[in-house]
């Protein structure tokens, strides 16, 4: 089971939008040296919505190769078309990913039965560990705990990233009596500390992009049940948890990484550079969190 701080890594880009492969390589090495416990390639933070299929698969392939099995790599392979999700998940497996992370289908708002059949179809088509991903604030679709319980019975569905951002939902999931080898990950940095202390297995994190060592230490402390240490680290990171979402993700986190001289200042339309009015608050959060 993958545990701890799992970074939803950005896809570095030049100002013209071209992928910066050298910066991606440097980021992977930095994360491994800083203690990051796993890497999600081409999640929401990795701009999955604007990479074309070839780029999407190439980012996964390169992150797998760069990691050299030192940390697990989870491929973001979700789509709002079941057939496309199957194709991307198959490509993620062929690239050597350890697992696949599939966001709930977005925009078309499937009912709970549609969600069940969507994930079941992917799980039956591709023999790779699958992590469900619920983020209703992005997708307009909220996978209910009862649906998670149904899906957890399928042999290669092994976990859930829950990003609703509500401790009440985490408690509902933990009370389901899910299989012992089914992992629940926080997908909301602001509530991740408490979620892990309650019983979650880790955090698939945006904040880890800029504070990988501290996010690793926070998750390790929480997994060990050391509430005092986990909460102390979390308090230092709360400004980052909050202000890295002052504009839609990944705009602020890519600005922050550019400020840290880790990546160029590249995004793809329809995302645009962060408003200058927000720069001071994100810079202050970076200082508070020890990132600069």
TrEMBL record:
Top-level enzyme category: lyase
Gene Ontology terms, MF aspect: 4-hydroxy-tetrahydrodipicolinate synthase activity
The keyword Cytoplasm appears for this protein: yes
Pfam families reported in the protein's UniProt record: DHDPS
Site entry: L-lysine inhibitor binding: 49, 80, 84, 106
InterPro entries: Aldolase_TIM, DapA, DapA-like, Schiff_base-form_aldolases_AS, Schiff_base-form_aldolases_CS
Domain of life (superkingdom): Bacteria
A GO biological-process term: diaminopimelate biosynthetic process
Pathway linked to the protein: Amino-acid biosynthesis; L-lysine biosynthesis via DAP pathway; (S)-tetrahydrodipicolinate from L-aspartate: step 3/4
Primary site of residence: cytoplasm
EC number(s) given by UniProt: 4.3.3.7
Positions annotated to bind pyruvate: 45, 204
Active site: residue positions: 133 (proton donor/acceptor), 161 (schiff-base intermediate with substrate)
Subcellular location, record wording: Cytoplasm
Annotated GO CC locations: cytosol
Catalytic activity, reaction form: L-aspartate 4-semialdehyde + pyruvate = (2S,4S)-4-hydroxy-2,3,4,5-tetrahydrodipicolinate + H2O + H(+)
Site feature Part of a proton relay during catalysis, where: 44, 107
Record bears the keyword Amino-acid biosynthesis: yes
Similarity-based family: Belongs to the DapA family.
Task of the protein: Catalyzes the condensation of (S)-aspartate-beta-semialdehyde [(S)-ASA] and pyruvate to 4-hydroxy-tetrahydrodipicolinate (HTPA).
PANTHER family: 4-HYDROXY-2-OXOGLUTARATE ALDOLASE, MITOCHONDRIAL, DIHYDRODIPICOLINATE SYNTHASE
Quaternary structure, from the entry: Homotetramer; dimer of dimers.
Protein name: 4-hydroxy-tetrahydrodipicolinate synthase
Protein's organism: Solimonas terrae
């Amino acid at each position: 089971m993958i545990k701890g701080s799992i970074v939803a890594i950005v896809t570095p880009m030049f100002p013209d939008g071209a992928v910066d492969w050298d910066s991606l390589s440097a980021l992977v090495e930095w994360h491994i040296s800083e203690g990051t416990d796993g890497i999600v390639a081409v999640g929401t933070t990795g701009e999955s919505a604007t990479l074309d299929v070839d780029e999407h698969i190439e980012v996964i392939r390169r992150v797998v190769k760069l990691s050299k099995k030192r940390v697990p790599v989870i491929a973001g392979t979700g789509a709002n078309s079941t057939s496309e999700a199957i194709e991307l998940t198959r490509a993620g497996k062929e690239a050597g990913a350890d697992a696949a992370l599939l966001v709930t289908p977005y925009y078309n708002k499937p009912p709970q039965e549609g969600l069940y059949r969507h994930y079941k179809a992917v799980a039956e088509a591709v023999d790779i560990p699958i992590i469900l991903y619920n983020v209703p604030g992005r997708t307009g679709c909220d996978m209910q705990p009862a649906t998670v319980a149904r899906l957890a019975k399928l042999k290669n569905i092994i976990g859930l990233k829950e990003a609703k951002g509500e401790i009440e939902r985490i408690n509902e999931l933990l009370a389901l009596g899910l299989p012992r080898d089914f992992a629940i990950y926080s997908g909301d940095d602001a509530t991740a500390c408490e979620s892990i202390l309650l019983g979650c297995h880790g955090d698939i994190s945006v904040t880890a992009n800029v504070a990988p060592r501290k996010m690793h230490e926070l998750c390790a402390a929480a997994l060990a049940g050391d509430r005092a240490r986990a909460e102390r680290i979390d308090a230092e990171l709360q400004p980052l948890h909050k202000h890295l979402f002052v504009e839609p993700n990944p705009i602020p986190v890519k600005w922050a990484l550019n400020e840290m001289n880790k990546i160029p200042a590249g995004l793809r339309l329809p995302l645009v550079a962060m408003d200058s009015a927000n720069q001071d608050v994100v810079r202050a959060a970076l200082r508070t969190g020890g990132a600069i």
